[in-house]
Specification:
The complex is a heterodimer.
Chain A lengths: L15 H8 L12 E5 L3 H13 L2 E5 L17 E2 L11 H11 L6 H20 L25 E2 L5 H18 L3 E4 L2 E9 L2 E9 L5 E5 L2 E4 L20 H8 L4 E2 L4 E7 L22 E5 L2 H8 L13 E2 L1 H5 L9 H13 L13 E4 L1 H14 L7 H27 L8 E10 L2 E2 L12 E3 L17 H21 L13 H18 L7 H15 L6 H21 L11 H25 L23 H4 L1 E6 L9 E6 L14
Parallel strand pairs in A: 1-2, 1-9, 2-5, 9-17
Antiparallel strand pairs in A: 3-4, 6-7, 7-8, 10-16, 10-18, 11-15, 12-13, 12-14, 14-15, 18-19
Chain B lengths: L5 E10 L8 E11 L4 H14 L22 E2 L2 E2 L21 E5 L8 E3 L2 E2 L2 H10 L20 H11 L6 H5 L6 H12 L2 H4 L2 H14 L10 H5 L7 H16 L3
Parallel strand pairs in B: 1-5
Antiparallel strand pairs in B: 1-2, 3-4, 3-5, 6-7
Helix pairs in contact in B: 2-7, 3-5, 5-7, 5-9, 7-9
The chains are: A alpha+beta, B alpha+beta.
The structure holds flavin-adenine dinucleotide, iron/sulfur cluster and FE2/S2 (inorganic) cluster.
């Protein structure tokens, strides 16, 4: 059994990374071309890692399942990226970003990792600007910032509501440059389906060419997994349709521990569910909470009338609105962290105040009318109009909103057919991000030597809850500024190894495993589609392993998922053939892994008898409905070891979290 | 305010087994489609029906389903991304159609985008154009200069952003009678030409990207402006004019 060694360096927190880096082993430039590295994923984490390693001179092979690396799910991030630049001179610093992230994560992340993240955050912005990323700027030509939840400073850099797109295109351009120079070989429309270990070390992967169906062997001296998060285990989430856990899960099954699978982030501001054919949920960026006020009617009869279509939100008088976040959390108001905002919405809807006319009545308002007035007046004044009419104010206010959030408002209107400049948006929480992931040490190496994990796929920096605009920061930090050092340190011992052969029994065995899984599903001759099972799984997960969990429900979920998994194996029907483009085959392989993961998530949630961040156990709350953490018994990272196909036999390992710098306290946003 | 209802439609969809085979339009009847479904959710519904009938579902590209990844394509009733403006196919909703409509669904058609299967095409030519010069040649060390060292006029930054908003979907190519990629290429060239960080290499960039574009077999631009109309991100043909200027001055000064 591997012992969990986080490999956190000695020394004072603020100097750990610098000192550690100074003593890492290096690979000389002339040796690097002899060394192969595989990078699975081309999101912010994978693209930045592949570009950096390629630039250093390693021989890199990069993989993505989309038709171009530019389409990785990172592209969809809207709101922004954090960095401790303190350009706004509002008291920000590396320490404060570090502190906010630890607190936001509800004291369930590693101090050393988070501090490193905060340290390199500034460099990310420098790097991106140098690459030509067109961030939003002020009239003076300098970079603009906005606020995000869980902080009281303005440290979020953005590009309208398309920050992820601009950052990914920046990383993609760096990657493209290396591809053009021949240092990175790109495999589009390829899916990794197995990790190959030789002598206990990660030495390659088996991938399926999604166009021809060919099963390919690829060897390397180290493998980086940057395959994103697993939110789609819920079927409905804000993740892209193809986002999946397969790469991370295969690594887990080969011996990498999987940490904190139960930590899921439910994002408070998404468009509510509209019907049974719905395929995904759309996020309305958290940045909207800078300008929008969240409310439901104070009176139940008003909520009922709204749902029945008899009353419009604009007809509800100010004194009849319950701005419940401002009421409950006066210090942070609408900018409380996501988990807090989500639970508060659920609390109101469960109590009967939901405003959406769907099956569950789940929806609340996000209202921009106050901001239209405030910004309208400010703009009029700035233009020298000190006596603006009501119409002028409204027009200017709307224009201000359009400049700031235009594309988000258009997106909302296209989906719902309602105009958010005139009537408040309807929103509700949805699955968005997964803090859990493959367990990694300080070097971002998993418990399999040579297998590194970056970005959302690892568990490393966000504890039990991620703050807005911090995932983009982490992805680029991992890929540009951490992995290049730590992988080199690992590879320094491999300069004499020579090329890894793909003719070994290990490769043959891994390939056979993949082929027989494909064969099994194609010959299964069941009666139900992949989506049928995926939706069922999603249902169990949302109802019993979702925003609020309790012992009874979790125990039921474990049973139900195990049963569903059996049924799925027996009765799923997959049309088409192996040697062609076959989207149903792609889906079935992913859902097979989601079934196993779903069960582990429920087990992890059951084991964690406390509430923290995104993990809310109904049994553990205070009189006001706030989370009750148990630092005596649960201040650890829960890392699971695979132990055969019966998921209930997975073994839990604990990494105790040590807080040297921060005094651990109750999280308070009041 | 929207009211949701269910409609019945007839679909004529391009089916093609693989790149080598010849394709044809197949007809499908689909009932009870909610008007608040997206177009791709409608196709999901069709595919579910096909799978239940033990037939092969229709292959189409998609991922984010919110208009940003550029993966979805589709020529719908003779228009790239369908009968609405400023959106991608995944943002098209069934409320744009009526009960009893017949809807034609075809892949992008262009020599530089060969069909892989059904509605899926190969757009890797776009990637190769980017690899030829769609970048600033800085290394990834982060040791550049402070991000605020060079102020950029807001107007330039905004214009660069508008050009950078291109999602690489290829609708401009599909809709152009010449199959030209000028809108796509000019958007990238413009983004960098407008920023001080990109200016340094502007000459080489435009020459290399245009050379690669020609090698990939894209057609010539004859200024019909069809691309701009169908572009889901509102990329302006001003960018093409800017690129032409960049190209002319680059050709004149380059010693290559
Ligand atoms: C709608 C939305 C908005 C968001 N907004 C923000 C925001 O404003 N700020 C913020 O900080 N964060 C935001 N996030 C979170 C953030 O976008 C993600 O956490 C982050 O982009 C993940 O990056 P990544 O590189 O880890 O993975 P991804 O970008 O998900 O990339 C995964 C890559 O892995 C590849 N891949 C996966 N499996 C395989 C396989 N088996 N074989 C081959 N390739 C594979 C994929 O092709 C892809 O290239 C948002 C998330 C969503 C869903
Ligand atoms: S220019 Fe417009 S149509 Fe062409 S690829 Fe870019 S976004 Fe698509
Ligand atoms: S699926 Fe991403 S743009 Fe349509």
């Amino acid at each position: 059994m591997t012992k969990l060694d986080s490999k956190i360096p000695e020394g004072p927190l603020a100097q750990k990374w610098t000192r550690y880096k100074d003593h890492l082993k290096l690979v000389a430039p002339n040796n690097r071309p002899k060394i192969d590295v595989i990078v699975v994923g081309t999101g912010l984490a994978g693209a930045s890692a592949a570009a950096s390693l390629g630039e250093m001179g390693y021989n890199v092979k990069a993989f993505c399942f989309q038709d171009s690396p530019r389409r990785a799910h990172s592209i969809a991030a809207q709101g922004g990226i954090n960095a401790a630049k303190n350009y706004q001179n509002d008291g920000d610093s590396v320490y404060r970003l570090f502190y906010d992230t630890i607190k936001g994560g509800d004291y369930r992340s590693r101090e050393a990792n988070v501090h490193r993240l905060a340290e390199v955050s500034g460099n990310i912005i420098d790097q991106c600007v140098a690459q030509g990323v067109p961030f939003a700027r002020e009239y003076g030509g300098l970079l603009d910032n906005r606020s995000f939840g869980g902080t009281q400073v303005q440290r979020t850099f953005y590009a309208a509501g398309q920050t992820g797109q601009q950052l990914l295109l920046g990383a993609y351009s760096a990657l493209s440059r290396q591809i053009g120079l021949g240092r990175v070989k790109m495999y589009n429309r390829h899916e990794m389906l197995e990790l190959v270990k030789v002598d206990g070390k990660a030495r390659g992967i088996i991938a399926r060419n999604l166009v021809t169906g060919a099963i390919e062997r690829h060897s390397a001296h180290a493998v980086v997994i940057a395959s994103g998060g697993y939110g789609n285990v819920f079927f409905l989430s804000t993740n892209a349709m193809g986002s999946n856990v397969t790469a991370a899960w295969k690594v887990h099954k080969q011996g990498a521990y999987f940490a904190n699978p139960c930590y899921v982030q439910i994002h408070p501001t998404c468009i509510p569910v509209h019907g049974t054919n719905q395929s995904k949920l759309t996020l309305m960026s958290e940045s909207l909470r800078n300008s929008g006020r969240i409310w439901v009617p104070k009176k139940k009869e008003d909520a009922e009338a709204i749902r029945a279509g008899k009353l419009k939100p604009t007809q509800i008088k100010e004194e009849d609105r319950d701005y419940y976040l401002e009421r409950r959390y006066p210090a942070f108001g609408n900018l409380v962290p996501r988990d807090v905002a989500s639970r508060a919405a659920k609390e109101r809807c469960d109590a009967g105040f939901g405003i959406e006319a769907n099956d569950t009545n789940e929806g609340v308002y996000l209202d921009f009318s106050t901001e239209i007035q405030t910004k309208g007046k400010q703009t009029a004044y700035a233009k020298g109009n000190h006596n603006p009419t009501a119409e002028e104010i409204t027009a200017l206010g709307k224009k201000w909103l359009e400049e700031k959030y235009g594309n988000l408002f258009t997106m909302y209107q296209k989906i719902t057919d309602e105009n958010p400049y005139e009537t408040p948006m309807k929103i509700y929480p949805a699955v968005h991000y997964t803090m859990g992931g493959v367990w990694v040490d300080y070097n971002l190496q998993s418990t399999i030597p040579g297998c590194f994990v970056a970005g959302e796929a690892n568990f490393s920096d966000h504890g039990a809850n991620r703050l807005g605009a911090s995932a983009l920061m982490q992805g680029l930090a991992d890929g540009y500024f951490v992995l290049p050092y730590t992988i080199s340190n690992y590879l320094a011992d491999d300069i004499r190894t020579g090329k890894i052969s793909t003719d070994s029994p290990e490769f043959a065995e891994a390939e056979n495993k993949v082929k027989s899984a494909i064969d099994k599903f194609l010959k299964n001759n069941g009666t139900k589609s992949v989506d049928y099972f995926h939706k069922k799984l999603g249902h169990i997960m949302w109802n019993k392993v979702g925003m609020a969990r309790k012992e009874q429900g979790l125990k039921e979920a474990i049973q139900e998922i195990a049963k569903l998994r059996e049924e799925f194996q027996k009765d799923v029907y997959v049309p088409g053939e192996a040697n062609e483009l076959n989207p149903e085959l792609e889906k079935v392989l992913r859902v097979a892994d989601f079934m196993e993961l779903g069960q582990l998530m429920a087990q992890d949630a059951l084991q964690r008898k406390e509430s923290c961040g995104g993990h809310f156990r109904e049994e553990y709350q205070d009189a006001e409905g706030e989370t009750l953490r148990d630092d005596t018994n649960f201040k650890f990272v829960g890392a699971w070891e695979y132990n055969g196909s019966d998921i209930s036999t997975e073994v839990l390992h604990k990494e105790e979290l040590v807080y040297e710098e921060i005094k651990i306290a109750a999280r308070n946003y009041k | 305010m929207s009211t949701t209802k269910n409609i019945n439609i007839t679909l004529k969809i391009w089916r093609q087994k693989n790149a080598q085979s010849k394709g044809n339009l197949e007809t499908y009847q689909l009932n009870n489609v909610s008007t608040s479904s997206s177009f791709l959710e409608m196709l999901d519904q069709l595919n579910e029906q096909l799978v239940n009938e033990r037939k092969e579902p229709v292959a189409f590209d998609h991922d984010c389903r919110e208009g940003i990844c550029g993966m979805c394509s589709l020529y719908i009733n003779g228009r790239a991304h369908g009968p609405d403006t400023g959106i991608t196919t995944c943002q098209l909703h069934m409320r744009m159609f009526n009960d009893g409509d017949t809807i034609y669904v075809e892949p992008w058609r262009s020599t530089a985008f060969p069909v892989i299967k059904d509605l899926v095409v190969d757009r890797s030519s776009f990637d190769r154009i980017q690899q030829a010069g769609g970048f600033v040649s800085v290394n990834t060390s982060g040791r550049t200069m402070d991000a605020n060292a060079i102020p950029v006029p807001k107007a330039d930054a905004d214009k660069a952003f508008e050009a950078a908003a291109c999602i690489g979907c290829g609708a401009c190519v599909a809709t152009c009678k010449n199959g030209s990629a000028m809108l796509f290429v000019s958007a990238k060239v413009s983004q960098f030409a407008l920023l001080p960080q990109g200016k340094v290499e502007a000459t080489d960039r435009v020459l290399n990207m245009v050379r690669q574009m020609d090698e990939e077999g894209f057609g010539n631009c004859t200024n019909t402006g069809a691309c701009e109309v169908e572009c889901p991100k509102g990329i302006s043909i001003e960018n093409i004019a800017r690129m032409n200027r960049e190209y002319l001055s680059a050709s004149a000064t380059s010693d290559k």
